[in-house]
Amino acid sequence: MNIFSKIILLFVLVFVFAIAGFQNQALMSEDLTPEQRREAREVLKQKLKRYEQKIAQYDKDIAKTEKEKKTLQGEIRALRNRISRLDLQIRQGNIMIEGIESQIGDTEDSIIRTSLEIKNSKQGLANILQVIHKKNQKSLIEILFLEAKLSDFFSHLVALETLNLENQEILSHIINLEKYLENQKHALNTEKQELEGVVAIRILQKQEGASAKRGQERLLRMTKTEHQRYLRAKEEKAKKAAEIRARIIELVGIPDAAQLSFGELLSLAKLVEGQTGIRPAFLLAIITQESALGRNVGQCSLSTEGIKTGEGVCIRTGKRAIRTMNPRRDVPHFLNITRELGIDTFRTPVSCVMWRRERPVGWGGAMGPAQFIPSTWVNRRHILEPFVQGTPNPWNVNHAFLASALYLRDLGGQTNERRAALQYFAGENWANPRFAFYGDQVVRRINCLQTFIDHQTITSFCEQLIFIPK
Questions:
Q1: Which end of the chain is more exposed for a tag (fewer CB within 10 A), N or C?
Q2: What is the pLDDT of residue 435?
C-alpha cells in the first residue's frame, strides 16, 4: 500500500474514534455534570423535600382550623395557614424551575459542542475531498501506471471508497446527534413553561388570599351588629354564587356530552390555565362568544351535495343552507375528522355562514364549543395531541377548551387579550374595523367573568351576557 493510501486510512480511523468519543461524551452530558451543578441540584432536592414536609404540616393545620371558622379569629388563622402554604408552593415551583434551567444549560452546552464539532468535521472532510478530487482528475489507467504494484493500485481504490463511506456515516451521525439534543432542549423548555404557569397561579392565589385576610382583619374592628349584617350579606352572596356555579350549561349538539354546570366549566378553565397561561375569564369569554358556553355549536349540517358544493341544511327548518363549509379548504378535513371519530358526517352540527347586510360573509363549518374550522383544527392538532388521550375531538369539551387556550396563547393572548380574540375570529383581517365588535364583546364578557371569579358577584347585565343563549 502506498503512502497516500496509508495516510487516508489513518485519518479515517483517527476521525472515527474521535467522533465516537465525542458522541459518548455528549450523550452522557447529564451523567458527567460539572461538580458545582451536581451539588446545586442536590441542594435543590433537599429544599424541595423540606418544603414538601412543611406543606404537609400546613395541610394538617388547615384541616384543624376549618372547625374554628365560625369565629372571625378562626377564619383569619385558616387564611394565614393557606397563604403560608401557597408561599411554600411558589418557592417549591421556583426551585423546580431552577433545576430544569440547569438541565437546559447542560443541554445547550452539548448543542454548542456538537455544532462546533460539525463545523470542524466539515472542514476536515472538505480538505480530504480536495485530495480525492485531485486524485480523481487522473484516469484509472494513469493511476495504474503510477503504482509500482497492482496490489497498491487496488489498495488505493479501496482507501478512497472507504473514505467516502465514512464521510457520509460520520456526518450523518453528528447531525442526528444535534437533532436529538435540540429535541431534548425543546422538551425541557416545555416543562419549564408548564412550571412557570403553575407558579403564576400560586402567586395569584396568594394575592387573593392576602386580600381576603385584610378584609377579615378589618372585621375585627366591627361592632357585633355590623358583624351580623356582614354575615347575612355574606351568606346571601355565597348562596347567589352557588346558584350560578350550579347553573347547568346544556351542551346542545355535542355527541355523548354530559350536562356541565358553570362551576365545572370554570374549574376546567382554571385547570387549562395551568397548562397554557390563558386566564379563565378570557377563555370562558371566548367560548361564550363562540358557542354560548357550548349551548350553540351550530345550526347547520353538511349535505351530501355539499361535499362538492359546500352547501348544507338548516337543522331547525330543513331548508338549504348555502356556504355551510368551504368545499376545498375544509370539507375533506371534515370528512376525515368525522370518520376518525366515528360520528355521522351529515348529522353533526356546524356553524352556518355569517350574514351581514343580507349577504353571506365567508363560510360556515366551525365545529364544537371552540368553533374551529376543520382545516385549522387539523393544522393544529399536533399541538393538542401531547395534552390529551386518544384522538383529538373538537366536540369534546375538555379538548375544545384546551385547543382554544393553546391557540389563544400562540396568538399572544397572555399579553394582549383583545388582539388575540380578534385574530381568533378574523385571522389576518383582525385589524379590520368591521370586526371590532367581536373584540369589544369579548372584553365585556371578560370583565363580567373576572368580577365573578374575584368577588363572587354578578350583575343582571352580566348574567344575561353570559347565560342567555344566543
A1: C
A2: 84
